[in-house]
């Protein structure tokens, strides 16, 4: 089964990893099982290292094939065509990454990390809801509120305004400072959850282009890869590494870039790569190739067009477990109704019950999507 990863679920994945005290075996497609640590003694400690890289264009990383990241793939679940977010500014990307909420909800756009209504909007209309970072949820956990957390970055505003709940906030000078601070803590402290922020590829891309043809950009990618190699060496040197400490290492870009800019919505800016590394993982690439089908729904009322798949065999579940994801995007037309199914009574929108109804016909071996009015 091929799966399309959802970038905003990364936060949920991290919290689940650090909060769990025992685990089942990891199932892979094609089916096989990987060895787990012995958790019978109750001493196994699950830990997370998350490395975020600004400006790392997924296709360029894949083409450059930096040695450390390439070597990690043999023990990783990874993807080259994930989606970061609909907006690729630094602030929007990092707010999405640490909160698990997309820009469409948090509305943080610029580097102040403060909401500003778009030009022409009602300035008294109210700000969007506040969405805390994953560290807030760790602090509110009944069993993990004393977790040793670190966030290391050369961007003071990011550290101070987005992750104020972190136990060990570290502001450094440059990416080398991030690497050095991380290694110091890995060697001398006892970290349980660390987040590292590297941004030199973004700087190099803006200076000469987000492409390996730009020597400065390629060198920046290669240097960060070397930093990751040094960090992994220090991690693996911990006496309990892969024994009583089970580490999940996540490497991901926060956004890409195009030409000499970023912040927009083009695929080069919003396509993400991510890898989830663990010594006991087998290598599996998640891809949307062959499984991404996008039916178009148009019209309204009597002229509405239902979702009709071009491939009659698409989403055939057979006899195996199947995961299906639906993502809906719509544009509001003229009038007062939202872009999906509603019903009005006395000129008031009453309720939206069900957007899409999936009917699984095991005999026909297909799934039909139809809009349901309630």
UniProtKB/TrEMBL annotation:
Annotated keywords: Signal
Keyword Oxidoreductase belongs to the record: no
InterPro entries in the cross-refs: Alkaline_phosphatase_core_sf (IPR017850), Phosphodiest/P_Trfase (IPR002591)
Record's signal peptide: 1-27
Entry keyword annotation includes Ribonucleoprotein: no
Name of the featured protein: Alkaline phosphatase family protein
Organism the protein comes from: Niabella ginsengisoli
């Amino acid at each position: 089964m091929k799966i399309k990863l959802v970038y905003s679920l990364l936060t949920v994945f991290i919290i689940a990893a650090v909060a769990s005290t025992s685990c089942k075996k990891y199932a892979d497609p094609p089916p096989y099982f990987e060895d787990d640590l012995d958790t019978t003694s109750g001493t196994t400690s699950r830990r997370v290292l998350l490395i975020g890289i600004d400006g790392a264009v997924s296709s360029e990383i894949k083409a450059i094939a930096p040695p450390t990241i390439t070597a990690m793939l043999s023990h990783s679940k990874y993807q080259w065509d994930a989606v970061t977010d609909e907006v690729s500014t630094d602030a929007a990307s990092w707010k999405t990454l640490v909160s698990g909420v997309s820009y469409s909800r948090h509305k943080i756009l610029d580097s102040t990390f403060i909401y500003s209504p778009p030009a022409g909007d009602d300035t008294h209309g109210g700000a969007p809801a506040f969405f805390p970072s994953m560290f807030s949820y760790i602090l509110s956990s009944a069993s993990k509120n004393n977790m040793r957390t670190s966030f290391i970055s050369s961007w003071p505003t990011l550290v101070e305004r987005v992750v104020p709940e972190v136990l060990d906030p570290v502001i450094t000078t440059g990416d080398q400072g991030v690497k050095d601070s991380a290694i110091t803590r890995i060697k001398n402290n006892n970290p349980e959850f660390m987040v590292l922020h590297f941004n030199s590829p973004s700087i190099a891309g803006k200076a000469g282009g987000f492409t390996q043809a730009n020597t400065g950009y390629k060198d920046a990618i290669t240097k960060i890869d070397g930093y990751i190699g040094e960090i992994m060496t220090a991690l693996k040197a911990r006496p309990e590494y892969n024994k009583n400490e089970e580490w999940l290492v996540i490497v991901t870009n926060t956004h890409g870039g195009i030409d000499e800019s970023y912040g927009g919505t083009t695929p080069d800016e919003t396509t993400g790569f991510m890898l989830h590394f663990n010594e006991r993982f087998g290598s599996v690439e998640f891809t949307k190739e062959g499984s991404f089908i996008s039916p178009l729904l148009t019209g309204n009322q009597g002229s509405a067009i239902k979702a009709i798949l071009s491939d009659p065999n698409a989403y055939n579940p057979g006899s195996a477990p199947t995961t299906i994801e639906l993502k809906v995007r719509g544009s509001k037309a003229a009038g007062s109704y939202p872009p999906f199914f509603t019903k009005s009574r006395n000129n008031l929108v009453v309720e939206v019950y069900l957007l899409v109804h999936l009917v699984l016909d095991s005999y026909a071996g297909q799934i039909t999507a139809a809009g349901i009015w309630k």
